[in-house]
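Human: Note C-alpha cell order:
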Amino acid sequence: MYQPHPQDGEMPPEPGRPAPPRPVRTAVLLMYTGAALSAVSLIVTVLSFHSIERVIRNASSTLTAHQVHNDAIVAVTIAVVESLIAIGLWLLMAWGNKNGQSWARIIATILFGLNTLFLLISFVRATVSASLAFSVLVWLVGLGAIVMLWRRESSEYFATAGFRR
C-alpha cells in the first residue's frame, strides 16, 4: 500500500489512543452522575424560591417584604451560579479523565477534598436535612469516582497516556 511521505511541517498521525480501563470509565460515569445531580439541585433551588422566601421571613422579623424578596433572589442566584460551576467542573473532569489527562485526576482529587471539607462544615451549621442528605449523596458519588481514578489499572492508563503526548 502506498503511503505518502509527510510534507515539511506535517506530522504523521498519532497512533490510536487506548480505551480507558473499566475503573476510569466507571469514574467518568460517576462524574456524569455528579453533573446530573448538580443539575437537579439547580432545578430544585429555582423551584423552591417561595420556600426560601418563607425561611428568610421566619428567620428575621425585622426585614420588610421587599428585603425578604431581594434576599431570596440573592440566595437563589448564588445557588444557581454554584450549581452551574459544579456542572461545568464535573463535565470537565469527566472529559479530562476519560482522555487520560493526569491534571484532571489531580484536580478531581483536590475538588473532592474541598467537597469533603464543605460537607464537614455543613454538619456543623444548621441545614435542612434533605439538603444535607443530597450533599452526602453527591459526596458519595465523588468518593466513588476518586476511588476508581486511583486504582492500579487507572494509574497505568494515566501513565501511558502521559507518554503518548
Remarks:
- The chain has six helices and no strands.
- The helical segments are 22-47, 49-59, 65-98, 102-124, 129-149, 152-164.
